[in-house]
């Protein structure tokens, strides 16, 4: 096996973006590399959509233009992240292999003319991706420009589930391997309900549209299968490249923007995690979503530095209203990613496309050219990143963990749940956002992970929770940890079957409470909670009839369907404690509840003013404190060290203007211990 | 022909639910029967989704587990409603007969993995249901536990219309029988419009998606055909059972929740009407919808006692927000059904499922087990029903009838009607709800029924009205009846063709009014009506230009597009009168208008306070007055007799607490006459 | 070639409607013609949906009933517009040629039973329409009743795009002719983006549903192709008729209601433009939409008189709420069409259908018969039109032109635009409506037209603008014209590729401004503009970062994302000027901005009060001033001449009551010059 280099071979923070020069005349290339140097670009991703121009007919390759391009970039000191173009097979491929086209759940066969891979289970597609990946790696494994391999693009988007015959057959095989016997499958899927018992493997199919709701365990397994097939496709390419090349290999995730792929599993397959992130313009606090994506990217990579493979200099083009970033916003976004562990800041894309579906997507070099705000900020950002080289490799310190479990999300996203208002996305966001407001840096984790290093673990809507994982959470509390569990947690096992003993049963002992019945609220309905001190909280969407069995009651329902019953409970066990929140608190309620949990956990909330984001990365010799001021006024923070963007000593405090950023190198703080 | 026993052979009111023990270990069965006895359960429905476990491959039956189950139930004194499992054919069936899969109107072939029958017109399906029904009846016709047969489940849901080739061919045959000649079909469908003339039977098809709106008469016939095919499937099973068995045979309707099946026709096919009813959580007055369903179930069975085959102990799982029932609500729901003619109160289902699509549906034995409010109320309800045995067989007394005509509904539900705001559901509900508020008990009826026994007949949006049925309504008024007709009535004949003479023409003489033109209102628009005494009413959605020809004007439009014209009219004919309401009155307007009509009809509204529901069942020797208090305070009603739940004499008046119920046995009132 | 008569051979203004007597007994026909004479009807359209009754099986014709009908009409002095029935092929056609059925973009094959042509590219369909058109023309070319031919019905509705195999093959051929080589196609479509390069013509297909957004240039070409195929179908029929007949040939457009067909191109194919127009009931200013449709119909016909082929006497049946016209409204609508150039006022349809999809559509003879408001107004309108004979042939005088470019609309309507709130329909309507309010009569024009005759040219959202067309607009300003351009103009070329130089680049010189970046607003967001005089305007949805390069700033953004930057600019060049409006102004802002532009253009806004519509047609000897009073009060206008409806001299001023109309013959005004 070839030895893998653990990070692209380049100096400092990587900076650049997707570069698709096949859209332009050769003369433009020269201007491109000149401007890249002006902007401080040191890494570009090429070839991501170039299959049709590299393999012009099946098995016939034309590398001339790509040779030329890589040589040009290398001559200009710009490193290359070389993509495999398998996210968009050529027209000839679909013409030769029409059976490889993707079929949707409602039976429509997808046409050509857009982007998106073929069926993940198509033998023809799998052979074709092995061939192109092998050919690319054989030719460029030793090209001096290439420092990184970029397999495919955004697995799972826009093609995830596939209902083609090839996929159905592969699903059957996958089920056979998972269950071994039809009896085991019948039990796992609960086929006795609604008369779905299988007596022959040939009768088992994909969960396509049916007259009513399809078996949820079948759908959950189809989600697992889809993820597994996509990963199998990745491995085919990765292994074909590795046979020739020693550079690290990645594929770009879409953390917190796509849920088709289990990023924990994918994190184990790649050499380096890379991620694409785009602000959701309709979200006034889009930077919180960004922080989630960054923390998740870091977490699925085990805390190692990661690559921000794509973000945007300004507006995107695929949202209903594509709001442009305002001055300084691109820098704030970029520095936030850096603060949360990215050592590479890249964009989609270098030069705005004149044609095609994404011509209105912003770029490093916009349609307006260099006489533009965007270009000036791109140059400035390149300069700023140059000043932050020493940050590279430093590790983010997190006191808290938020559970994030794709299998639970897949299960919870199925139909016929108790209330359409209860979504894992909203619950994770609500708890994370409160931690963010409180300046408590968090990792994401699976419920089965070793959580002992965290002072606080939050489980928002951990709907699917195996008994083993529940035991792990109980052990965490027994070991002195503080656990906060929201409603709609611990409901089903790995087969989407309600736990014996009822809702929350596997956590009943550690939390000292059981759920007798869900009491979802009507549309627009709100309830009031009263705490022991008489203070009141507001909640919406969901309440429950709780049976308290050991916990203390922190707040009761003052009205609503559960009036008089416990609403928030706390179960003290030695130095550990287990909190349960049976409703969807508004922001004030969450703030008050988590504040009390912090006390149990021994966490101090940040002293920075609201909207001033502070994150620390710990290097070998120093700490680096990143300050991103989302506020409309100037902030002054006590920090003794050197502000790296200006190079100036702080003299005890750093001043960050409205919308501004600062990075202060300080002495390492003492190691946090619990 | 075997003699049919007219009611399940058990004592008192039947109590129980669907029992699907194939989901559980044998050990659970023993606990089940023990708890059933504790709850007073005396009837359970079994086998409804068990096809795959009974006929494991085509023609190979395994009755062992069912033998065991029935013996166990019988040994514990629990009677059985034995289902045929044809609402969910096994996987092997669809694999062997892929052409039997249902095709939707937009051409999608429905997959397996959910529930829902095959094509109602598939020869393979029809053969299969005959085989399984015959096998079950042959084996269990004489089993002492079996007191009732339950064919299929909820015909029409989730599978009604089918556009498979088998269905298209059957539709052609059905049309041939209906029309005899293509000339007759061309005339009935008005094919001269839009160039749809047929010259060959082979050219006639189902009304699948087309570039624009499809011929409405064709669609109406397809709805009739769909209903007829479903009924044909029922008859196949019923007759197969009857060849062996003498117990009554039913199938569970979904009155007021599904409109695919013409329950009047179905009422003639079953031995006993049974019905499923679920509250619509978003409806704050869901108990009115419940009363409609109950009255309709009774009416389609000709007034005979019926079976509430399914309702829920608390929340369901398939609505957007599945609101749980609050303490006492399940009892109020149950007693309302009983008050309106049900002699059996059953639930879906006995024990909550751990797996599958309906695991979040409440049950008699919830996930929380017996230490739960739901279980305690289930036991209490069993006890209460035990005290009401003597009610069995008593008949509900109704002074009014509301027209309810599925053919009219089907026609009115088609596209391109004058206003999307005019729906038969809303109009029927509005008039019924006012009768409910006024304590006027109503039957439902077809316009062609003998209506002479009713003091008042209300026709809300009777869009399709044949000339013969119109004549029947006229005869009713001529005989002294009071008829209230709403707008959008008497518009088309049985072929969805506008009546010669224009809108309302067939009722013009009896009502003394004609409709010159519809004047639908814009979104959100309201109009004011002024009555002779100067009082004002508010209306929405719809107004009309009326031509008064004989009627007196009760109210005029004060504004809106018909300002100055008649809005509500009354045509006195001897002791009868015909009212016409040309707009959609709000609740106050309906109250005032019906109050005036009651005077004509000689009806006295109830003296019970608003929200206190009072219904009388008349037994052989006594009247039974049911009181259901939906109010938040205690109600006292003058009733002299014995309250059956407590067994106490009322001493002239009965006190019913907030949310409570009472059933008072009194002397029979004098026979109501008109 | 036969000489074409330029207008139907009848006296005065044509009046009548679609006549579909095949729905009725022969006895009804006699009543029909009697009532037609009573109403002053002189032209009816027949045969539009009669294919199945004329060609009963393939190649077998039955003309007897049509002979009879035409003779009857001729005998009563009623002229005939003879339709070809090709908008609704018979059942036998689709049965014999199932491959001719239309396939939707999502792959559904459309069924029979509605209306709508077959695939525009089907050889069988093309052969069939040639055959029926030839047969009809051969038989009736010399029938004395026939004065006009009416090919098909509303091309593009309900069938426009077709994805059947025949259409895909034809698209490939069409592309071959357009591009000559695959290299040219690859360049035009920008296939280098997302890896869509084609190497074989056989790989090119229609832009059917794909996993993500399909190539916009491909979709734009498919829209062009669809339009071309529909026109080819028209030409087949037109030429078949012309081989026999000398009467003018038309087909009815749906101006401002359908966007599938490029009416500029269609205007060149027909002998006379005809148009269908229906009010959109939900639009409180529906008469403005009517005026747009009328002006567009006139404009695509080069200003010649045109035929209002269909409108409605009262409500239609296909909108959500089909609001009836109120007394006088039908006359106002009709006279507005006449004022804007129509010399024929026809309706859909003569007698209301009893059956079929459109039975609730109003008619000249409604279901209520002659004892109805509608009938009385129909008779009155016939009388009024009889008094306006001398208007025939007079030409509308327009000082302004509004650009209307279907290719731009098609391109702009594709997915992934910067904001869903920016639509060409809304922008065209906003600018036109302000001109309408100001009493400035406008033509519509293409950006490549000779515009030198207009004082003012408005370009609302001219998204697609070729460099040649941009040069034409620049030349217009250089020649002294006043040009007002809204945001989202001049963005892409004919291939939907962003212009080199960036947004607005081809107009940058004439407008003295460039667009650095789009700044779409969030939902509900508004911004304020400040003008030099301190006055403030409000705008929504869209703002921009402008780079002013030569223009003067007329208004700046006072807030919002572009705060402080130019919002409205004016670039004076000699006596011409180029205005740019970078945001979506509300009505007050548009009024103020256009008022300033009128000054540049030398246009005086009308002195008539708001809501009183005044349009002038210029005849050979006189001017005819049409006054339509949409107001709720009486209006008095200074006009010296003869009011034609009353025949009275005006004595200097004409008084028009609320909702009334007047047509005043005056001396010809002096020729307007710029």
From TrEMBL, chains A, B, C:
Its UniProt entry gives the catalysed reaction(s) as: Hydrolysis of terminal non-reducing beta-D-galactose residues in beta-D-galactosides
Beta-galactosidase trimerisation domain ranges (all copies): 398-603
Beta-galactosidase C-terminal domain mapped to chain residues: 611-665
UniProt keyword rRNA processing, yes or no: no
Q: Report domain Glycoside hydrolase family 42 N-terminal positions.
A: 18-386
Which superkingdom does the taxonomy of this entry point to? Bacteria
Q: What is one Pfam family matched by this protein?
A: Glyco_hydro_42C
InterPro entries for the chain: Beta_galactosidase_C, Beta_galactosidase_Trimer, Class_I_gatase-like, GH, Glyco_hydro_42, Glyco_hydro_42_N, Glyco_hydro_b
Query: EC number(s) on record?
Result: 3.2.1.23
Q: Keywords, A to Z?
A: Glycosidase, Hydrolase
- The residues forming the signal peptide are none
| Family affiliation | Belongs to the glycosyl hydrolase 42 family.
What's the protein here called? Beta-galactosidase
**Species for this entry:** Microbacterium phycohabitans
């Amino acid at each position: 096996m070839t030895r893998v280099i653990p990070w692209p071979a380049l100096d400092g923070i990587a900076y650049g973006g997707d570069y698709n020069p096949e859209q332009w005349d050769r003369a433009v290339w020269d201007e491109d590399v000149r401007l890249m140097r002006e902007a401080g670009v040191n890494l570009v991703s090429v070839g991501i959509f170039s299959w049709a121009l590299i393999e012009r007919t099946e098995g016939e390759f034309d590398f001339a233009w790509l040779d030329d391009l890589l040589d040009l970039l290398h001559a200009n000191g710009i490193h290359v992240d070389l993509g495999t173009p398998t996210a968009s097979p050529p027209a000839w491929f679909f013409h030769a292999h029409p059976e490889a086209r993707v079929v949707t759940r409602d039976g429509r066969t997808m046409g050509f003319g857009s982007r998106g891979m073929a069926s993940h289970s198509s033998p023809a597609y799998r052979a074709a991706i092995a061939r192109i990946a092998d050919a690319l790696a054989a030719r460029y494994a030793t090209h001096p420009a290439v420092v990184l391999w970029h397999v495919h693009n955004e697995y799972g988007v826009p093609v995830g589930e596939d209902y083609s015959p090839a996929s159905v057959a592969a699903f059957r095989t996958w089920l056979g391997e998972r269950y071994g016997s039809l009896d085991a499958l019948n039990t796992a899927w609960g086929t006795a309900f609604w008369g779905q018992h299988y007596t022959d493997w040939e009768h088992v199919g994909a969960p396509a549209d049916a007259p009513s709701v399809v078996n949820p365990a079948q759908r959950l397994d189809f989600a697992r299968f889809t993820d597994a097939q996509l990963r199998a496709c990745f491995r085919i390419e990765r292994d074909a490249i590795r046979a020739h090349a020693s550079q690290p290999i990645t594929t770009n995730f879409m953390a917190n923007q796509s849920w088709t792929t289990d990023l924990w599993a994918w994190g184990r397959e790649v050499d380096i995690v890379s991620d694409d992130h785009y602000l959701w313009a309709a979200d006034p606090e889009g930077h919180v979503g960004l922080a989630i994506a960054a923390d998740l990217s870091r977490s699925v990579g085990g805390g190692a530095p990661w690559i921000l493979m794509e973000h945007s200099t300004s507006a995107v083009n695929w949202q209903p209203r594509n709001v442009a970033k305002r001055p300084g916003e691109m820098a704030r976004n970029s520095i936030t990613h850096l603060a949360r562990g990215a050592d590479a800041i890249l964009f989609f894309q270098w030069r705005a496309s004149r044609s095609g579906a994404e011509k209105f997507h912003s770029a490093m070099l916009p349609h307006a050219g260099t006489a533009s705000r965007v270009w000036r900020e791109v140059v400035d950002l390149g300069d700023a990143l140059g000043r932050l080289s020493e940050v590279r490799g430093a590790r983010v310190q997190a006191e808290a963990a938020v559970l994030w479990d794709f299998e639970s999300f897949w299960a919870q996203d199925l139909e016929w749940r108790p209330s359409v208002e209860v979504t894992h996305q909203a619950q994770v966001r609500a708890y994370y956002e409160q931690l963010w407001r409180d300046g408590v840096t968090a990792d994401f984790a699976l419920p089965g992970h070793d959580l002992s290093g965290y002072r606080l673990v939050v489980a928002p809507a951990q709907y699917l929770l195996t008994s083993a994982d529940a035991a792990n959470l109980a052990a965490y509390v027994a070991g002195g940890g503080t656990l906060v569990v929201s409603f709609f947690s611990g409901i089903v096992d790995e087969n989407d079957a309600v736990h014996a003993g009822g809702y929350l049963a596997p956590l009943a002992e550690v939390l000292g409470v059981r759920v007798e019945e869900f009491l979802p609220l009507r549309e627009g309905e709100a309830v009031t909670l009263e705490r022991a001190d008489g203070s009141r909280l507001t909640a919406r969407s969901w309440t429950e009839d709780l049976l308290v069995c050991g916990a203390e009651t922190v707040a009761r329902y003052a009205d609503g369907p559960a009036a008089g019953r416990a609403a928030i409970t706390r179960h003290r066990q030695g130095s550990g404690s287990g909190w349960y929140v049976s409703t969807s608190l508004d922001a004030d309620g969450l703030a008050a509840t988590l504040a009390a949990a912090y006390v149990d956990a021994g966490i101090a909330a940040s002293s920075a003013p609201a909207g001033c984001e502070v994150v620390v990365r710990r290097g070998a010799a120093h700490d680096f404190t990143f300050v991103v001021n989302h506020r409309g006024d100037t902030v002054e923070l006590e920090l003794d060290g050197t502000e790296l963007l200006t190079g100036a000593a702080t003299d005890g405090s750093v001043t960050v203007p409205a919308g501004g950023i600062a990075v202060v190198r300080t002495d390492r703080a003492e190691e946090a211990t619990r």
